[in-house]
Amino acid sequence: MFESLSDKLEHALKKLSGQAKINEINIGMAMRDIKRALLDADVNYKVTKNFVEQVRKQALGEEVIKSVSPAQMIVKIVHDELVKAMGGEQKDINLKTSRMPAVIMVAGLQGSGKTTFTAKLANLLKKKGRAPLLIAADVYRPAAIEQLKTLGAQIGVPVFSIEEKDALKAAKQGIEFAKQNSKNVAIVDTAGRLQIDEEMMAEAERLKRELSPEEILFVVDSMIGQEAVNTAKVFNDRLDFDGVVLTKMDGDTRGGAALSIKTVVDKPIKFLSQGEKVDDLDIFYPERMAQRILG
Ligand code: GDP
Q1: Which residues does the record give as GTP binding sites (predicted)?
Q2: Ligand 1 centroid, distance to 144 Cα (angstroms)
Q3: Tens of pLDDT along 176-215?
Q4: H-type helices in 86-166, by residue range?
């Protein structure tokens, strides 16, 4: 698979050993390798360029500590900058509210893994002692509603749906149902299309306006590369969402989308979906993702 960035740097920076300072000349090779590794990990070009510049500035003039090699030092700088660029701390979803239930709205393109994630999140919250309700607001696709029902049955979480093709009505009635049945979190699975279109965006905006969700999560397939960043930007411009869910992270990806999206939309990544099973959901930790990108 990939040669890890740490290994590449060890190799490239051999000549640096014995030198006391990192300077413009001896750092050039390392920067090229870092750039290459980030691009290989699917980080957006502009993000990569800025990131490498940041690392270069940090590294220049650093005294090489006797106990570590220059390569190790640069790897450490890259690691720390990656963690910082991805938000530093792990960010939880917001469920704090005085009303019942707390509302989580889930948005994203069709095929992104939105419905699967919705069920995974309900499963996770249930395990944490919450009483979730899943609401099928993707009213245009009967298959999506059926899929949610199947997943709900698997995890023992009720699914609310209506016959009419009215997403707002489905969501509002679902929230009312949650209230009456002592469910303290309502997770609304909204409609997705294969591509961004005005109607979908307008509907999502309307849902946000009418429901005032405590949390809006944007779901995106990490395998679609640069498109992930563009899609995130469009959704964020319209919805000003609270967090990102990167799906299909079990695929052949180093996870550069995490760095790109965080940099471009400046919203925290909150979850990673790493498989098709309802348990394959992980909380996002910038530290772990930095390790993964570094290899
Ligand atoms: P939606 O159209 O956005 O609601 O997407 P779905 O939840 O229906 O997912 C689309 C396809 O991707 C389905 O076949 C899912 O089983 C699959 N899928 C969803 N999440 C993941 C994931 O994290 N990893 C993998 N490998 N497949 C996933």
Answers
A1: 108-115, 189-193, 247-250
A2: 11
A3: 999 999 999 999 999 988 888 999 999 999 999 999 999 9
A4: 114-127, 142-155
Per the CB < 8 A criterion, the answer to whether 105 and 190 are in contact is yes
Maximum CA extent, the chain? 73
Q: Is the CB of 190 under 6 A from ligand 1?
A: no
Q: Which atom of ligand 1 is nearest to the CA of 219?
A: 3
Residue matched to tokens 């910082």: 84
Q: Over the range 211-229, which residues count as b (16 or more CB within 10 Å of their CB) and which as e?
A: bebbbbbbbbbbbbeeebb
In DSSP terms, 104 is beta-bridged to 187, 215
How many whole angstroms from 118 Cα to the centroid of ligand 1? Answer: 11
Model confidence over 117-156: pLDDT tens digits? 999 999 999 999 999 999 999 999 999 999 999 999 999 9
- Tell me how far apart the alpha carbons of residues 1 and 171 are, in angstroms, rounded to a whole number: 45
Backbone angles phi, psi at 17, to 5 degrees: -65, 145
Q: Ligand 1 center to residue 112 CA distance, Å?
A: 6
Q: How far apart are CA 196 and CA 265, in angstroms?
A: 17
Interface predicted TM-score (ipTM) over 0.90: yes
Mutate to test the pocket of ligand 1, among 276, 282, 284 (most ligand atoms within 8 A of CB): 276
